[in-house]
Amino acid sequence: MIQYPPHSYPDIVLGSIDDLQPTVNFASRAEVPAAEQWGPRIIPDYQLFCLLSGEAEISIGQERYTLAAGDSALYGPHCPHRIIARMGAVFIGIHFAYRQSSPEPVHPAFSIEACSEEKLKASIRPSYKLELPSKELLELPPFFTKPDLKPILMRIVKEYMNEQPGYRILLRSLMTELITAIVRNQLTTRPKSLEQDKIDPALQAINEQPEKNWTVNELAALCGYHVIYFSSLFRKCTGDSPKQYLINERIRRAKYYLLSGEKMDVIAERLGYASVHYFSRNFKEETGLTPTEFKN
Hints:
Layout: E1 11-16, E2 23-32, E3 37-42, E4 46-53, E5 56-60, E6 63-67, E7 71-75, E8 81-85, E9 89-97, E10 113-114, H1 117-122, E11 127-131, E12 137-139, E13 143-145, H2 150-162, H3 167-189, H4 194-208, H5 216-223, H6 227-238, H7 242-259, H8 264-270, H9 276-287, H10 291-295
Parallel strand pairs: 1-11
Antiparallel strand pairs: 2-9, 3-8, 3-10, 4-7, 4-9, 5-6, 5-8, 7-13, 11-12
Helix pairs in contact: 2-3, 4-5, 4-6, 8-9
InterPro entries: Cupin_2, Homeodomain-like_sf, HTH-like, HTH_AraC, HTH_AraC-typ_CS, RmlC-like_jellyroll, Tscrpt_reg_AraC-type_HTH
Keywords: DNA-binding, Transcription, Transcription regulation
Domain HTH araC/xylS-type: 200-296
């Protein structure tokens, strides 16, 4: 059970998700007996602790949570924590940095600091946030359940342990994929805001019919709002104007169709472009590449 303190959490912005350069510093799969304990301690980097079986209790700052199989905890260097195996447990632990110029692992063991019980109880967990393309700051979950992470976690452990040629850059790629999966899971499971609900009819219309040349008036009417209010609300929720959002959706689908082997004239017609020339020009304006260059 999570116990939330009455304080507000300090924000720590980790940067943009598009600029991540994660480095895996340490990765292992371990089996431990009941009552095994780590901490209270402070680590020099970030850690993902994923419980595969058994039960564990973790305290991060003033919060306490009991992990069951499939549960994970995500925390960083800015506050103390403690982990206790309440019964025999199997877990995967990954130490990493979100942004590091070098992919060379830096083992955290020599920089882990012990701390007092008093310091653990007095600390407050920071709110770690990543910036999304929409400029929204998304808080990363300190505790979450996502059992399907096990395959990628095991791949990270295997690459780290075996140290085959290219393992450092492959670890960076796998860690990027892992962080992206956590972010997408957070976006999917978080409750929608009331403002997001207000523009859902327009989003659904664009997603279902991206080939239609939707006007802002038409989209605003679907939501039942004046066009000025709707446009302002739409940009606030998505980071884009309705027109740009429609273009983005078309380009996203165009990429999929191109990589699926469809011809450009078919794609242009399917997505509502008047000609292949206009489609190609719009595609390059948005991506910096022609459709052919992108496909190649």
